[in-house]
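Appendix C reproduces, verbatim, an entry submitted by the partner laboratory led by Prof. M.T., so that reviewers can inspect both the input and the predicted structure.
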Amino acid sequence: MLKVLETVAKDGPVSAADIARSCDINRTVAHRLLMTLAQRAYIRRGEEGYTIGPAVLQLAQASDKDLRSVAKPVMLKLAADVGETVVLHSIDNGEAIVVDQALGQRHLVRVEHKPGSRHPLYQGASGWSLLAFQNAKTIDRVLRKLQDSDAARARIEQTRADGYAISHDELQLGVHGLAAPLLERSGRCQASLGILVPSIRSDGLPSLVGPLLAASREISRLLN
């Protein structure tokens, strides 16, 4: 059953036939396991197939507490070192959600995010840094919402090559963002670390890449 749940999380939306093939089990058994998971709200059935359900999301939110406790000291140090606001995002129900932030205290003009606020994965540096490290099926599903999917795929490839994403004026006018994925040993990515800078200091963004990548590697190491 755990293998079925992991397959839905990795490849969803999926059908009972997809699960039977992926898990190498009989389709009747696959259907029975899916129904059991659905009854407990670990998965839910939509028009395109089975996807992760609210019970898993509740568990994920509980795990975010551990993510915050591990990441916060590193975030506070990074914010103090660079003088800018540092944000922590995770994936929740196919969107990027702000888990926590450490405010930059060096400048009067600074950027703030509201914890709990969310946005699509195809917006903002934090969203792109998360999206670039999802599986192909998830990426395809997200990119269906965009008119220019070729440009989006090129941006994803660039983010993978660089190890970070960059944005400006996508979520808030006058705000530039830089974000790196927090990678698990398996290569999966459920969270990202970002730095937000007002446009008046955006020429300094390239100098923040090194500190950001070092901090993201440190948090990834602590989580793994």
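The CA atoms of residues 7 and 22 lie 7 Å apart. Additional entries are available on request from the coordinating office.
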